[in-house]
Amino acid sequence: MTKYILKRILYLFLTLFIIASITFFLMKLLPGTPFTNQNRLSHEQLAIVKAQYGLDQPVLIQYLRYMGGLFQGNLGTSFQFNNEPVTQLIGQRLAPSMQIGAQAMIVGTVLGILLGAFAAIRKNTWVDTLATFISILGLSIPSFVLAVLLQFYLAFKWHIYPVALWDNFQSSVLPTLALAALPLGNVARFMRTEMVDVMSSDYIELAKSKGNSSWQVVTKHALRNSLIPVVTIIGPMAVSVMTGSMVVENIFSIPGIGEQFVKSITTNDYPTIMGLTIFYSFLLILVILIVDILYGFIDPRIRLGNGGKE
Amino acid sequence: MEQTPQIPKEKFKMIHEDDNQEQEKIGTPSLTYLQDVRRRLLSNKVATVCMVLLSIIVLISVFAPIVAPHNPNEQKVEYANLPPKIGEANIPGFNGMQKRGGKVVNAYKEVGAPKGTTYLLGTDYLGRDLLSRIIYGTRLSLIVAILATLVDLIIGLPYGIISGWKGGRTDIVLQRIIEIISSIPNLIVVILMMIILKPGLASIVIAIALTDWVTMARLIRAQTFQLKEQEYILAARTLGESSTKIATKHLIPNLSSTIIIQTMFTIPNAIFFEAFLSFIGIGIPAPNASLGTLLSDGQKAFRFLPYQMWAPAIVLSIIMIATNLLGDGLRDAFDPQSSD
Q: Where does the record place the ABC transmembrane type-1 domain (chain A) (predicted)?
């Protein structure tokens, strides 16, 4: 297991290195300039500004410098947002994104498990149909469509939640709901399939024939065993929640990293784009890694699948 | 030893050959695999409805120049932000009435539009017909999705077949490449590509296809691995068929169900990414509309003109739901064991 984890961590850094390099050279290929008022600058001024950002050096030197900085956790300085270091920019905006992301994952997963379990227990009844319908809606409707609709009804028309603001828990409810739909649909569907399988297995029959109440059978035997495979889809789901959060943060004007990313794209702020790209990739790969390792601990068969060696 | 009791001869009866045949006869006509798939698909009501719905949407998009009542990019600023109106019918929400400054007025009369003027879904802030824009937007979204899926196939299919067929070192190298590509989040690749390429249809297609082919290649590879152990492939090899011929003649027909199912899941994915990119403003450039840009415009105006948000939201949701459900239906039809 230790070897497996170490190998995966090594892969993580290798992938990050490749992503950082690709991003760097892609940014160098970009046409245009990050300085909005370049035409008004004289040659000397431009030279000074370029020197300030190290843009007067050969590309290779710039690359080595950037990678060197990366190893020390330095992502460069933003061209646009008050020349702030990118790391600082990310740091300030991490909390809101993390909060709505985590809330959405928790709400979506818990509700999804309940919905899927109910659908499986009441298989082929109206409960099942309704649950399937809800999970298809959650899976299909893009989070930004949902966000727009929630904002219109719950915030603008009925004044239950703020339209767009970021101060207390209230303001995080709508973005959380918009983002929770996808994990909800995903988990509910997965859970239903698993649970239907488990409910028809021998040990459930045995538990039933021993005279356990159906409630006991479900909570003690069926639910637990159906939950294990659900862990596998948490990684990909976290990825899609982060995707959605980029535009949902924009809709609700939440000062998070997603909103910052979109803003940097529209203003050609290369260091911030690069920094956030690397940071996003890091987060996503890390989440998938953690989920894989967790799964290995929960279900020992995974380790066996790895050549049968520890 | 006891003697077996004698059975009188008259108890025996001659069975006619015809009686037997009647029972053994196969009553239902034998179905080929594809006929079977079609039967299963059509017996799935939800999938059938989705198929009909999608066919209608596709037809409308194909014939957009004929179907659309107005030019989608023609601006009539004097007719800006008119509410929906269906002829002279007095349907609430579709009668051209609008709340302005606390009282309901006939918006069409206010701007002095001639009597016959109707915009079925109203107009946007530049006086462009919303219905026409949605029709053209849907067309664009579908074009992006279909092209992206095609590119996906063009890269993913040969990649998967070669990887699965050759095996060994080739396979290891090709799979490592896939591993690295798939560990970079889709969204990041798409956005980076969009920043570098010029905004437009081609770049969106390239950006989406670049990330999506990996799944296709993986599935095809796994399937090829299974197929190449089959007897008919062995027979073809023994008879001296070339690898290319085996791939086109034997592998691809047997891979078709995997391809069709995966394609049905790639399409909504591509539609989502296109709408996503257009929504955050790096997708289809103005003045052309896509469902994403329309929704984004609608969201900005929804305080006073909610109809501008509703229409694209509903159309986009319907397309996404229908493609997903049809994909499920196709999977169940092609592979009945996959459903529980």
A: 94-295
